[in-house]
Amino acid sequence: MRILVIEDSRDILANVLDYLQLKGFSVDCAQDGLSGLHLASTGHYDLIVLDIMLPGIDGYQICRRLREDGRSEVPILMLTARDALDDRLQGLRAGADDYLIKPFALSELVARIEAILRRSQGNRKRQLQVADLLYDLDTLHVSRASLALRLNPLALKLLAVLMQKSPAVVRRETLEEALWGEDCPDSDSLRSHIHQLRQALDKPFETPLLHTVHGIGYRLASVQDAV
To answer: What residues are paired with 136 via a beta bridge?
Structure first.
């Protein structure tokens, strides 16, 4: 399970990070609102642990932006020192799934994370679809028009980002970060992987799904959605 922790307190972040990793979770972290929103919007997480009081933009704003127009259904557990009822209600109305008051026991944090994940796993969509293209995130099976497609691990990761954002345009830098983090090999690497993905997705079929938006990035969409 992959978790994103957005928390500006270095001590709390270090303790949470160590404990979650000890419990077997894969953890990314951010210490300000804008960095946290960027990671949450471009990465793929099973749950977000989100502090409310953050530099840049606060946790309420992050939560609302992620929930706008169904952009993200990832469960969110809010952390805050505010224990007033109105504060808790504001967080839940912004789209949070649960609320934990500071100071908290790390064991309770993990218990709440596990409870949220149990509830969410049955509800979350594990199959992506764009037109006649299907991607089962559990089995990693990809098919188009009922024809199975064979993709390498980088192509699968690239396809997941494009399908989750479809029909929106995904910027080149967003795709590069999703594939390689900050260590992008060179400027032609993404283009090469896009070419290979297009060969698998579009070449055997009459209607293209993978479209280049010159100077910006790429989008995965049916013809009518891409116009």
So the answer is: 127, 141
